Amino acid sequence: MLFTWQQFLKKNSPDGLSEHARVGLFGELEILKALFFKNLNNKDAIQGWRGCRKAHQDFQYIDFALEVKTTRAVTPETVSISNIRQLDDENINKLFLTVVNVEQNPTNGTSLQMQVSEIKEILNGSSIGLFEEGLHEVGFIEGHTKLYESELYTIQSINHYAIADGFPRILRSHIVEGVKHIKYKISLGACNSYQVENSLVLENIKKLKERIENE
Prior knowledge:
The chain is an alpha+beta fold. It has one domain (15-209). It contains seven helices and eight strands. It has helices at 2-11, 19-36, 42-47, 112-122, 126-138, 145-148, 198-213, and strands spanning 59-61, 64-71, 78-81, 94-105, 110-111, 152-162, 184-187, 195-196. The strands form two sheets. Strands 1, 2, 4, 5, 6 and 8 form a six-stranded mixed sheet that branches. A two-stranded antiparallel ribbon has the order 3-7. It is globular and about 45 Å long.
């Protein structure tokens, strides 16, 4: 009971989401719009958004997963991996890492609240409820909207990396007994040979749509 209450207070802090959480959510929602809404029906797209529920990857579908990292660095050099399963493709046919680089300023761009409102405008029926459940899980509530109005973001770049053998990562199968809570950073420069075009990711999502429809 105490743990449940602590989790409720954490999600509903009067200070709203942390700065890191706000930027991360903005990046996830940008990818939800740019990739998944354009290639899946709205309900299927939202059901695969799992970052709001602390899943291993931010988007999880049939044999397909995509992890989003959002950064405000002027020249992104590294990204942090907070869960050893984030880049582990065990039992996943296709796994991608997507790095969203944003610039934040108070005069130009899109706020987190504006982005949420844009998504709600294109949803209907049960998909709205699913989306709102996800927002609540991550700690975004309507009572905090004014806290986010002055933070505006513009997308500087979106880069995709196909996770495959040799990609710089730590795998769960490599961890010896007794080692816990592994967090690490990877150099994006070391990932250059794994970078793929946006069209390849879209192609895989279109194949995903066929698998979902044939279930």
